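Reviewer has doubts. Consider these tokens.
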Amino acid sequence: MTAVGPKVSCVFVCHDGAGRVLLARRSAGARDEPGTWDCGAGALEFGETFEAAVAREVHEEYGVRPLGIEQLGVRNVLRGDPVASHWVAVVFAVRVAPDGVTIGEPHKFDALGWFAPDALPEPLHSQCGETLGLFGAGDAAGGGHS
């Protein structure tokens, strides 16, 4: 398969506004790295704003609507050597109501959990650490993600 060019992904760290982050464990049916814990993400569709893509994906994956969306940064994600996939990941912090969260895509995820940033589950997806780093950097800069 020949690569056509980079794809755009909206990556999101869902949080409760009180310091905990929501992670999903990738099931056997996940596209890659089953058994790892990850943030949410989805491809940007043609004609869609970043915020609309994030709201759609949060609802599809976790069954809730965002209470707040904050853009954190952008990552250029090159996977493989030689490069097999190339994504431009626009990263967001998304506040959600913890009591409404559910697994919306059981073919992709088999568990959800709320975690303190200093008590994350293992193993993490290979891209999750850098994404959570952007979330933490926002906090350190006074963003607060509330």
